[in-house]
Each structure stands twice: as C-alpha cells, then as structure tokens.
Design brief:
Number of helices: 9
Radius of gyration: 18 Å
Distance between the termini: 22 Å
Helix content: 25-40%
Number of strands: 13
Strand order of the largest sheet: 5-4-1-8-9-10-11-12-13
Structural class: alpha/beta
Largest sheet: 9 strands, mixed
Amino acid sequence: MILCCGDALIDMMPIPAQPGTIAYVPKPGGAVLNTAVALGRLGAPVGLLTGVSHDMFGQQLAAHISHSHVDTGHLLWSDRPTTLAFVQLVHGQASYCFYDENSAGRMLDIADIPALPNAVTALFFGGISLASDPASDCYAALLEREAPTRVVMVDPNIRPGFIKDAARYRQRLDRMMAQADIVKVSDEDLNWLFPAPQSDEQKVTQLLALGPSLVVVTRGNEGADGFMTNGTHIHIPAAPAKIVDTVGAGDTFNAGLLAKLSELNCLSKDQVKTQPPKILHTALNHGAKVAAKTVAREGADPPWAEDL
C-alpha cells in the first residue's frame, strides 16, 4: 500500500450565480487527498493518513475517498472543524484563501499516529500540511520514523501566501527532502526554493545533493523532467489537453508516477535508486497522461483507469 500523509480539505469552488455574484460549491480537495484519490482510481493500493472532522465536511471527505477506493483505516477523527480553501480561478489558474486555524487536519501530534502495518511500503507527503504547525512537525517526525525502511516521496506544493515562517519552513523541507527517495517540484517550487539566479539544472543539482535518488520537475504545458543521482535525465512533453482548469493537476501527476512505478514493481528503495531510464520515461509519461485528463475537467476530478 502507498500511504498518502497530509492535507484533506474542502475546496470552495466558485460558480456563477446571479448577475455580478459568485456562489461557492464545497468539493473535496487538498493536495494529498487528491493524490490518494487519483491513486485509488488508477487501481493502486492506497490509504490516506490525515486528521478528519466529524462535521458535515469531514463526512463528505470520508465518503469521497472511500468511493475512490482509498483505504480509510488511517483517518484520525476529531471534533475540530474541517479546513476550507476558497478558490479563485483566473484564466483557469487557481489561487487559494485558506481557513485552517485549529482544524482537524492541522492539530496533529506524532503520538496520535500508531505503528504502520507492514502492508505500507511507500509514503507520500506534501501540500499545506508541511507548512502548518503542529501538523507539519508531526509529518516530519513520521517521515523520519519511516524513511529507513519505506520508500518516501515528497511534493512540497509550495503556497507562499500560506507560509508564516519561511526560514523554519525551508529548514523543515530540507530535512524532509534529504530523507526522501523521490522529490517532485513544479518549476515555481524550484524557483521559490532557490531564488538566486541559476539554471534549473544547477538548482536540481542542489536538490539531488540533499539526498533523494530522483527529482522530478513539472513545467505545466512544457512537460516534465526527471533527474537521478546516477546522471540520468529524462524529458517528456506534456500530454495534449484542452485545459478547463489546473486544480489537482500536479497531484494527479504524482499519482500517475507512483501508480506506474508500483505496477512495474519498481517502488522499493533500491529500485528507485537504480531504475533504468526506460522505466523512468514510462512512469513520467503516465503521470503526464493522467494529469492531462484532470486539467480537461472542472476541479480536482482525477480519472479512473478506464478513462485512460
């Protein structure tokens, strides 16, 4: 099982209402939840570890992931409220306003998380849960606890407006990426992590020097690149798509990549480090193909395996 660890929230999606007004429709979201849902729909064995509220939105989240074949046995229930993210779309590009104080997903401690079963062979971390205390420290501690024996992927999915203490956030990310096997960043993430004028290749070299075996950089309609510590560099173009919006695109790419590596039996610590270029090319292409299906739909609505 791939266990996705992190944010599950409600995206308040804008829709036209009366002339000159906008209404908001609650839809399940969050970078980590989206990745878990996409993995489940693609047929990969997957679970979600996150804090979930007993409120109406928490019930909506649990029903959504269960419908998408995501194991719910690692949900941590509480009476705290669900995180809400109000979405603004400009030419299909999404920006967010978060309401997250004292939420079920945020108020976690490592003591809340029991030992993981042997069936969990890989863990995925990412999203705003890596920026919000105390959950961010909880997930960092969980990664440190599990990284020696399980494959770890990190996608920081950086939201600069959500970060209260940039220096502390950078330090936490550096520690987590240093212990990860796979790090996925967007080109925007890469520029935030390394703001000094350098080429992307120089920035990726610094990321690889932290410790991951594989760094993937996604570039929207310019495709994606995979870089390995053994010097392998694979570029794949973006899959053709008619873009409705980009909500959940990167999360679905993550799922496509992980699902294909799992399907090819290449999701172990040794195999991630030594995989041949052909395997990496196949996995990156699959991520791009799955993401293309998502951007052609409204909101974070990952495809099912039969849609491909």
